[in-house]
Amino acid sequence: MxxxxxxxxxNVLTPRDAFERLESxxxxxxxxxxxxxxxxxxxxLAEEIRSPHELPSFxxxxxxxxxxxxxxxxxxxxxxxxxxxxxxxxxxxQAPTVSPTMAETVAIATGGALPDGADAVVMIEHxxxxxxxxxxxxxxxxxxxxxxxxxxxxxxxxxxxxRGHILRSQDVGGLMAVGITDVLVATRLRVGIxxxxxEIVAPDRQPGPxxxxxxxxxxxxxxxxxxxxxxxxxGVVPDVYERLAQAARSGVEQADVLILSAGSSVSTxxxxxxxxxxxxxxxxxxxxxxxxxxxxxxxxxIGDTPVFGLPGNPVSCMVTFDLFxxxxxxxxxxxxxxxxxxxxxxxxxxxxxxxxxxxxYFQVRVEQRPDGAWAEPVFGKSNLIYxxxxxxxxxxxxxxxxxxxxxxWVQVILx
Length: 415
Fold this sequence. Notes:
about 425 residues, alpha/beta, Molybdenum Cofactor Biosythetic Enzyme, Chain A, Molybdopterin biosynthesis moea protein, domain 2, six-stranded mixed sheet, 28 strands, about 20% helix, about 30% strand, disordered N terminus
């Protein structure tokens, strides 16, 4: 493919339209594996999970106090207490050995199994011992008060987690609570990362004139790990077509997803598009997005492998990863919707201009003030990595807006 032909591809789409064009080719999960629940955090479920039994499986007290028949406390007050006889105690982790009858009670601790015959618990604060076998009750309780009923948490057969759910810490605990100790999840994806550029040197080398240390392959690798997958750094490749094409072909063979982080010049971007187009069908789907930073982004499919040509500037690279690569990894893992991202609302500390017809993203530092959270813009060119280091997140300006005004509430997508 000639350079002129590649430039014809440079018809920009909105970020949403661009991803939808790629999304139509994505199917997941590719592969699955069964893993212990304790190792499943942030993995994507490849099966639906239903409860094998009721939880709790016995009636439990939610308070330290006395298990009673609620009817025996009706009308009780500090001026006219109810008198109950203590006939035993529920030991933790054991089944009750006694059952209260009329005007009787059993001592019980939080979490203890409610004995037969009892239907409520009186808090210990609302009682007073008269002697070892008698208490006064100063407040009445209703049937079921301070008691967790059988199946109140989940019922047998109840849907616990759906296929495509990303497992969280509380999910791990919930699965253990019903005795599920292993789950079927999507296999982690291998994401190949190639950095292109004659000027790029390894971080442990002293850059010469006109050279810079490799930033993007390490930043991208950490973002792949954050998304729950396996980065495969395939090295830095000079701006030579044959070398880049060879590295890209090898990357498609080795990885489930391939990222080429190209140089910033127009000729280098064109060469990246030519290389990707040469790898196979269906080829380049998107070359150019109405986005700042990140307009030159390339989205492609080579067989079943998504391939991304991301801008070489660190800020552009990070923004476009979040917009296109992260959702792709999520879909290939069988995830539903978009991957979860943490965000907060804050007020903007100053006006920020934008050009209508494109999505703009800018970095902000979040400041907590007495009147709430404020977002302070951190401006800088997209090739300055410390614009990101000094920031807590980014803010989007919609396509149809010409900017944001000081004091306006904005959504901060946290890094």
